[in-house]
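Worked Example 4.2. Read the sequence first, then its C-alpha cells.
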Amino acid sequence: MSTVFIAFQTNEDTRPIVESILADNPHAVLDEQPAMVKINAEGQLVIKRESIEERIGRSFDLQELQINLITLSGNIDEDDDQFTLAWKN
C-alpha cells in the first residue's frame, strides 16, 4: 500500500476537521508541527462532511477544506458528502 496525506494550517478552524478525520480513519497518523498539522494514512484517507458538521454544529461544504489546506498527496475522489485521497493503481 501507499501512503497518502493531507496538511492544514494549525488554527481553530481546522481543529474539528482534524478531529473528524482522525475519528473516521483510525489507521491515520497525526503529525503536528508549529504551524501545520499533517495526517498520514496507508491506503486511503476519507473525509466525511457529516462528521465535520457534527463537530462544528453547522452545515459544511467540503470545498471549505481548501481555505486552510497546505498540501495533499494522493488522487482525489470528491462528491458533496465525502473527500477521499487514495493512490489509484
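Now turn to a second chain, presented in exactly the same format:
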Amino acid sequence: MIDYEVLQRISETLTSRRNADPSSSYTAQLLAKGPDSILKKIGEETAELIMAGKEGNRLHIVRESADVLFHMMVLLVHAGLSIDDVLVEMRRREGISGIEEKKARTVSK
C-alpha cells in the first residue's frame, strides 16, 4: 500500500521550516537562500537521477527520485503551495490521454 500521508507529513514539516533558523535546518537554509538556490538544487538532483537511470541501478534510481521529490516539495513550500496541490492536479489528469492533456495546455496558454 502506498503511504500518501508520508508526503503530507513531509510537506507539513517543510512548511514549518519556513520561519526556522537557517542554522538549525537544511530546509530553512534553502528557503532562506531563495528560489535560485532551490532551483539549482533541483537541477543537481535531477541530473543525478538521470545518471542513475542510465546506470540502471534500481536502488540508486529510488534514492535519487526521493531527492528530486524532496527538493521539489521545498520549492512548493517556497511558492506557498503543498504536495496536495500537485496531487489535485494529478487527480485531474488521471484518465486523460497525455496527448490530449498536452494539447489542452497549449491551447490555454
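Notes for the reader: DSSP finds six helices and no strands in the chain. The first helix runs from residue 4 to 16.
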